């Protein structure tokens, strides 16, 4: 089971909108192996395009073995982040077939890829330098919408974020919103992490007043909901490959 599979316990096309949005967010951050018509020449590669009733689509999987298994043998491929593949296909008006025959199978039409590309352009709302007039516990509805996905994203940032919390803010001008506070983040990483969380928030239900992102090195506010940061997982020892096994996706 891959991270995409784990987000698709309900098949992607049967899932509710928030679940589909989370799966698309994860797709953007996943390394995909896309089938090519032939081995790349210099820095150019031509995607294999399949004509389906829904229109022309490229084929990609999140494991090399899955791509080979679906095609039925070795195939030329290119490995690249999902966000780059999605942007290229959206610009050409083509769709994307992901992980056919797997729990995370997706058939994404050009309109979906264009929406995904737009969501990935989200920019962070950084909290003002001035302190808010009042801090409050986060609203229960906001906790229900955001806590799980934010904790999941924090799992990708083990070692970069020491602690994280969510709380409500009331500002001097009367504006109310929520703040995601990240502690222990090095200055050199703050811009990238703010962008990563802004992207994730773009896939989640919009919250009244929005969600600001802030950084600090001090203690968390007492009213804040502390978000779990998963412990780093020990890397599994790669199994020894059977020397009699078929070649792995290369000509």
Number of strands: 11
Helix content: 25-40%
CATH architecture term of the largest domain: 3-Layer(aba) Sandwich
Task: Report the radius of gyration as a whole number of Å.
Answer: 21 Å
- What average pLDDT do the residues reach? 88
Q: Unreliable stretches, pLDDT < 50, 5 or more residues?
A: 234-251
Q: How many structural domains are formed by the residues?
A: 2
Using the coordinates above, name the CATH class of the largest domain: Alpha Beta
CATH superfamily membership of the largest domain, which one? Answer: Uncharacterised protein PF11572, DUF3234
CA distance, first residue to last residue: 27 Å
Please outline the major beta sheet: 6 strands, mixed
H/E series:
HHEEEHEHEEHEHEEHEE
* Tally of alpha and pi helices: 7
Q: Which class do the helix and strand fractions yield?
A: alpha+beta
Approximate strand percentage: 15-25%
Tell me, briefly, the overall form. Answer: elongated
| CATH topology group of the largest domain | Trna Endonuclease, Chain: A, domain 1
Pfam family, one: SseB
InterPro entries: SseB_N (IPR009839)
Protein name: SseB protein N-terminal domain-containing protein
Protein model, in words:
Residues 16-115 form the SseB protein N-terminal domain. This protein is α+β, with helices and mostly antiparallel strands and 251 residues long. The protein has 2 domains: 3-119, Uncharacterised protein PF11572, DUF3234 (Trna Endonuclease, Chain: A, domain 1, 3-Layer(aba) Sandwich), CATH 3.40.1350; 134-227, GMP Synthetase, Chain A, domain 3 (2-Layer Sandwich). The chain contains 7 helices and 11 strands. The strands form 2 sheets. Strands 1, 2, 3, 4, 5 and 6 form a 6-stranded mixed beta sheet that branches. Strands 7, 8, 9, 10 and 11 form a 5-stranded mixed beta sheet that branches. Helix 4 (82-92) crosses helix 5. Residues 234-251 have low confidence and may be disordered.
């Amino acid at each position: 089971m891959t991270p995409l599979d784990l987000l698709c316990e309900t098949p992607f096309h049967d899932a509710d909108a928030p679940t589909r949005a989370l799966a698309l967010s994860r797709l953007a951050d996943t390394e995909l192996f896309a089938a090519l018509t032939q081995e790349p020449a210099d820095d150019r590669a031509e995607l294999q395009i399949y004509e389906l009733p829904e229109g022309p689509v490229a084929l990609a999987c999140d494991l090399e073995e899955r791509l080979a298994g679906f095609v039925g043998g070795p195939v030329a491929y290119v490995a690249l982040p999902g966000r780059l593949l999605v942007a290229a296909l959206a610009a050409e008006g083509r769709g994307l077939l992901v992980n056919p025959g797997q729990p995370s199978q997706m058939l994404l039409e050009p309109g979906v890829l264009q929406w995904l590309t737009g969501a990935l352009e989200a920019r962070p709302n950084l909290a003002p330098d001035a302190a808010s007039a009042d801090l409050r516990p986060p609203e229960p509805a906001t906790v229900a919408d955001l806590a799980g996905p934010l904790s999941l994203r924090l799992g990708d940032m083990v070692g970069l974020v020491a602690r994280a919390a969510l709380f409500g803010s009331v500002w001097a001008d009367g504006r109310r919103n929520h703040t995601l506070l990240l502690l222990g983040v090095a200055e050199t990483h703050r811009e990238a992490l703010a962008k990563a969380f802004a992207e994730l928030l773009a896939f989640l239900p919009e919250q009244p007043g929005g969600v600001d992102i802030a950084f600090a090195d001090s203690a968390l506010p007492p009213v804040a909901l502390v978000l779990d940061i998963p412990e780093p997982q020990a890397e599994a020892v790669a199994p020894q490959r059977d020397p009699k096994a078929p070649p792995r996706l290369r000509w």
